Amino acid sequence: MRIIGPDYLVFGVDDLEGSKTYLEDFGLKPVQLDDTGWLYEALDGTGVIIRPKSDPSLPAPLETKNMLRQQVYGVEDASVLDEIEAEMSKDRRVTRLSDGSLEFKDDLGFELRFQVTIRRELSMPAEKINAPGAPAQRAPNELGVTDDMAALPRSLSHVVLFVPDMEKVVSFFCDRLGFVVTDVLTGAGPFLRPQANDDHHTHFFIRTPAYMQGCEHLAFHMGGPTELMVAGDRFVRKGYQSFWGPGRHKFGSNWFWYFNSPLGVHFEYDADMDKHDDTWVAREAPNGPEASQIFLLQWREKWAPSGGPEGGSGA
Question: Model-level pTM?
Fold first, then answer.
């Protein structure tokens, strides 16, 4: 099944105004959907939809009261929706909406929606680097960083879910929807990608007790490590709390920087993720600090060297 990945994640939030401010400060563009709903989109149109948690148009909440209400996935074309409907209708109720999209629950009770993707094709340069031994990527006098450089989320990258039954959820996504396991952190869970996406992962599942079920974090691709660092630094300076990072993961090789949010989940900037095809053989490593990152940094206020207590080097 030619599933691309998440188009939107839908949340029913406690603090609508605080969530709106957070998402705009994170770098997402606000689009008002109706009187109570807002889409905050990345440059390709993917993003996050928020409504007050009492909004009757929202799917029912999880029993854990996690604020995630629905995961919306994009597929290549309408024929893929027909495939999904035929498969899912074997053992559950599937609702086809007026726009052709499908709604149903997975085997753990998460609300899912599948639609022909709304992703806009991006044509933007990646981060350019100059390195000895390789042709220069930036022309003479072309600067690598400026104070006002753009650093905006380009695309919704992946979602990480706390799940109480790992075997059931992996079987559902792999056996029923055609996802592939790319790597496994033993003691935590697997990374998955769908057939129409060669990113290392669009999903990571973490085994938890049932009372924790829900979304743990979601991530947005940036244009490179420098954009990630610039966006994260600007976000910290606006008063938001860094949770983990900046650093670089081992599995996926993506740079990361996670932040706390009023949506009850962590938001992540990521950059430079590995690509895989069907020849890739999944790796496995014990979950822990060594497997989770190749290095981890910590933000601090800007600093500069000086020549001594008087500001000079002395002579």
Answer: 0.95
